[in-house]
Fold this protein.
Amino acid sequence: MDVLLDTHTLLWAVDDPTKLGTTAAATLRDGNNTLQLSMASVWEIGIKYGKQKLPLSLPFRQWIDQAIAALDIRLLNITVDHIERHVQLAGYHGDPFDRMIAAQSLVRGIPLISVDPKLDAYGVTRIWN
């Protein structure tokens, strides 16, 4: 099954896996699943790291490259279809990165691994506990 990781899911999976929900952790470990990460998440991590609001265990590029390799992640580019869906989403969630990730989950029809219950209002299939 294809699954999309929320930004915090990647951060916790790499640097603090004890924060992951039981089902989320099992989904990440299941080798039959294809883990996808939005380029919005890569951008969000880079912005927060650059502003020194997000400490990482390694410099940004090393951290993201190792995370992608360690979890065998496929990067999901942002398409016009994703942006169109993003524009259509109501403002339940104030974070544009989270709305983009929700839009990608909806357009692709794949579950989202996220602790954030605000995303449920968009109708995503959310995996966590």
Remarks:
- The helical segments are 7-15, 22-29, 39-50, 60-71, 80-88, 96-108.
